[in-house]
Amino acid sequence: MSIFITATGLYTPPFSISNDELVASFNQYVDNYNRENADAIASGEKVALQHSTSEFIEKASGIKSRYVVEKSGILDPNVMTPIIPKRKLGEELSVMAEMGVKALTQALDNAGLTANDLDAIIVASSNFQRAYPAIAIEVQHAIGMQGGFAYDMNVACSAATFGIAQAVGSIQAGIAKRVAVLNIEVTSAHLNWRNRDSHFIFGDVATATIIENIDEKTHTSKGYEVLNSKLWTQFSTNIKNELGFLDRAEFLADQTDLYPDINEPVSDKLFMQEGRKVFREVCPAVSNLINEHLTENHIEPQSIKKLWLHQANINMIDLILRSVIGKDADKSLAPTVIAEFGNTSSASPMIAFHRHQENMQAGDIGVICSFGAGYSIGSVLVKKC
């Protein structure tokens, strides 16, 4: 049985925020906070916040801009979160489903398929706007797909490779022939835009990947055979996002007042990470897993033509590339999109894959690799047709 990635799709939101715009908003918030808390800061009860700069952001991450579903609220120093009107479930598409449909429609067109050619849809993302019904089932309904199945799964930033592995498994098990894996991320809503160390990291996007058993038809030159997958997880709280439906109950349990305000700020429940620990612990783990994966499949690292890596941080990408290929590795082997998109969590390696397949010839081997909270790492070996 031969299983291939035959097409991808990319939906990019209409708004982009440059580092300069972001810094201007953040620094205004800092000035407002320090002025409003001047007495407490002077007495030592509170610590003054520090300004940020575009130079700091680019040096720390490689990010120059990011796309978002809504811009005005993020840049308002009194709001600093996207303002997204409520949609009536069942009457309007949810935000995530709308983004997913656009990416999937493009991928289906690129594959020469229709909705009813699909047997399954997997939405593999870091965050979901609701617990259920599944975004994947909403997308299934929205595109008019008759029959088949759909479900959501979450492996944080590693969800793309884990989703591909599940799609391949479904095909190998005989329960599907064609599966769409969607990585839909509205990370702007899970981010604490008031945190100097992380407010610049994420962007919004949606990708779609079509995976097929194509024994029944002639394959085109655009596809990649999926050779093998390797998955790994280990519990860590160095990257976390704890916001969930139990927060209301936990908040009430902590109160002594009879009628506490349950609308307490949730900033401590949003995205948080110990960046230095993550860099120190995750980079070698990713490099080791890729090298083990290559060894298990009798592939020399120097024969790899592309590493489509999670776009977490430009310095992480560079270190992993050098650790896998060698210290003199050509940086074009690990194409980046982080400067334009920021970190788009689960979708990021698929944006790199979608955008950068230059110089790939028939028989060339590439690695799609994602990594993130959990910890979690996924590696998928593919061969150009």
Shape: globular
Overall number of strands:
13
Rg of Cα set = 22 Å
Unreliable residue runs = none
Query: How large is the count of helical segments?
Result: 12
By secondary-structure content and strand pairing, the structural class works out as alpha+beta
Helix-strand sequence:
EEHHHEHHEHEHEEEEHEHEHHHEE
Give the termini separation: 15 Å
Averaged pLDDT, please?
Answer: 93
Keywords for this entry:
single chain; 385 residues; alpha+beta; 9-stranded mixed sheet; two-stranded antiparallel ribbon; 33% helix
Give a nutshell description of this structure:
This protein has 385 residues and is α+β, with helices and mostly antiparallel strands. It has 12 helices and 13 strands.
Question: Topology of this structure?
Answer:
Elements: E1 3-11, E2 15-18, H1 19-36, H2 38-43, H3 54-61, E3 65-68, H4 72-75, H5 95-111, E4 120-124, H6 135-142, E5 149-153, H7 159-172, E6 178-185, E7 205-213, E8 224-233, E9 239-240, H8 247-253, E10 272-273, H9 275-296, E11 304-309, H10 314-325, H11 338-341, H12 348-355, E12 365-372, E13 376-384
Parallel strand pairs: 4-5, 4-6, 11-12
Antiparallel strand pairs: 1-7, 1-8, 2-3, 6-7, 8-13, 9-10, 12-13
Molecular structure report:
With 385 residues, this protein is α+β, with helices and mostly antiparallel strands. It has twelve helices and 13 strands. Strand 12 (365-372) and strand 13 (376-384) form a beta hairpin. Helix 5 packs across helix 6 and helix 9 (275-296) runs parallel beside helix 10 (314-325). It is globular.
